[in-house]
């Protein structure tokens, strides 16, 4: 699968309220639902360039591709 498609699919999965941004809470909810920790929250915040603790689709895509899918 194209990494961009993977990133988009993951983003859509996490963005449960479909507002186009993923928040720390949405990632934490995903962690709990999967009963493991797939996402380093420090990395999450470092990917948040705008500093608002929410990552939009473009921010996430950049982050995902930079980390070669290792989120
Ligand atoms: Ca959201």
Task: Quickly describe the structure.
With 71 residues, the chain is mainly alpha-helical.
Write up what this structure looks like.
By secondary structure, the protein is mostly helical. It has a single domain (3-66), classed as EF-hand (Recoverin, domain 1). It has 4 helices and 2 strands. It has a two-stranded antiparallel ribbon. Helix 1 crosses helix 4 (57-66). Residues 15, 17, 19, 21-23, 26 line the site of calcium ion. Calcium ion binds at residues 15, 17, 19, 21-23, 26.
Low-confidence stretches: none
Please provide the ordered H/E string of secondary-structure elements: HEHHEH
Mean of the pLDDT scores?
Answer: 81
| Assigned CATH superfamily | EF-hand
| Strand residues, percent | 5-15%
The hetero compounds bound to this protein are: calcium ion
Supply the key terms.
two-stranded antiparallel sheet, single chain, 8% strand, mainly alpha, globular, 2 strands, 71 residues, Recoverin, domain 1, 4 helices, binds calcium ion
Sequence-ordered SSE layout with sheet pairings:
Blueprint: H1 3-14, E1 21-23, H2 24-34, H3 41-46, E2 54-56, H4 57-66
Antiparallel strand pairs: 1-2
Helix pairs in contact: 1-4
The structure holds calcium ion.
